[in-house]
Amino acid sequence: MTTPHRITVVVGNTGERSRTKVLAQAIADALSAALPVTLQVLEIAKLAPHIGVANAPQDLSPEGAAALRAIETADLVVAVSPVYKGSYSGLFKHLFDLLSPDALVGRPVLLAANGGSDRHALVVDHQLRPLFAFFRALTVPSAVYAAASDFDGYVLDSEALRARIDEAVLQARLLLAARTPGQSLLREAA
């Protein structure tokens, strides 16, 4: 039997109702359909009281510390953020600021974001990708960006977006196939 891959989905939404959550769920569903997985979803809106006042990992509540462990031990991290003023949300960044600089070395990360219009699409490559490059993570080459026009209210309503999700999931699968669950490609190669 194949060991399921541990996937941690970090959703940068700051409210309960969110297109970011819908996008994250669509990616999680596509990953679940493509691979044997164990999913853990971390929502910034729910984590805020546990991470917002922490200046260092040792300042975290048990819930905040568990969130960091879920990211650090994932075989694949899916990072999904809404676009706020041309970048990811502040609490989303704060959560990753609490990680050790070596926590994601060689770890595959699938990047996704959503914003009001297509003019924010470059946030993935100009904001998210450099963040994970700092951690020396292996970002999936195809990222996913969704504009408001890709949704009907809070329902994903775009075949083009579904195709982008499928492409990114295929690339994530290829990165995961090159490693065994729990293994970091770069750490094992050294």
CATH architecture call: 3-Layer(aba) Sandwich
Sheet with the most strands, sense and barrel status: 6 strands, parallel
Alpha-carbon distance between the termini? 29 Å
**Domain module count:** 1
The CATH topology turns out to be Rossmann fold
Organism: Aquincola agrisoli
Keywords: Flavoprotein, FMN, Oxidoreductase
Domain NADPH-dependent FMN reductase-like: 6-149
InterPro entries: Flavoprotein-like_sf, FMN_Rdtase-like_dom, FMN_Rdtase_MsuE-like, NAD(P)H-dep_FMN_reductase
Brief sketch in words of this structure:
This protein has 7 helices and 8 strands. It is α/β, with parallel strands linked by helices.
Give a written overview of the molecule.
With 190 residues, the protein is an alpha/beta fold. It has one domain: Rossmann fold (3-Layer(aba) Sandwich), CATH 3.40.50.360. Helices cover 42% and strands 21% of the residues. It contains seven helices and eight strands. The strands form two sheets. Strands 1, 2, 3, 4, 5 and 6 form a six-stranded parallel beta sheet that branches. A two-stranded antiparallel sheet has the order 7-8. Helix 1 packs across helix 6 (159-177). The longest helix has 19 residues, at 159-177.
